[in-house]
């Protein structure tokens, strides 16, 4: 790995830390609740997509807004994460974000 590759990896560290937490939540805690989300994808899957696309801060804000909307009085339905216009990263098989090799 070159120094330039290492420097390009630094901005995705917070994003991947949050994705690690979300992955653990989805594997350990989420199965205890079952399929209770009124929306598709589920709120935790939405959070993963939001953090992957928009980063840790904006992704967390989008996820919090989604969780606030997911309540017993909502009609639910399909609510996908809006893709980032200039997404310049690749995803690993486990959903973590890495710098794109195309640059």
From TrEMBL:
* Membrane-spanning ranges: none
InterPro entries named in the record: Membr_insert_effic_factor_YidD
Q: Name one Pfam family in it.
A: YidD
Q: Keywords on this record? A: Cell membrane, Membrane
One GO cellular-component annotation of the UniProt record comes to: plasma membrane
The text of the family note is: Belongs to the UPF0161 family.
List the HAMAP family.
UPF0161_YidD (MF_00386)
Q: Which NCBIfam families match?
A: membrane protein insertion efficiency factor YidD
Which named protein is this?
Answer: Putative membrane protein insertion efficiency factor
Look up and give the organism this protein is from. Microbacterium maritypicum MF109
């Amino acid at each position: 790995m070159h120094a330039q590759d290492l420097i390009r990896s630094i901005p995705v560290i917070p994003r991947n830390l949050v994705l690690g937490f979300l992955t653990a939540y989805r594997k350990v805690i989420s199965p205890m609740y079952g399929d209770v989300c009124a929306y598709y994808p589920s709120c935790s899957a939405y959070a993963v997509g939001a953090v992957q696309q928009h980063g840790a801060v904006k992704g967390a804000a989008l996820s919090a807004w989604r969780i606030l909307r997911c309540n017993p009085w909502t009609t639910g339905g399909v609510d996908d994460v809006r893709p980032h216009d200039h997404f310049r990263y690749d995803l690993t098989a486990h959903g973590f974000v890495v710098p794109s090799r195309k640059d």
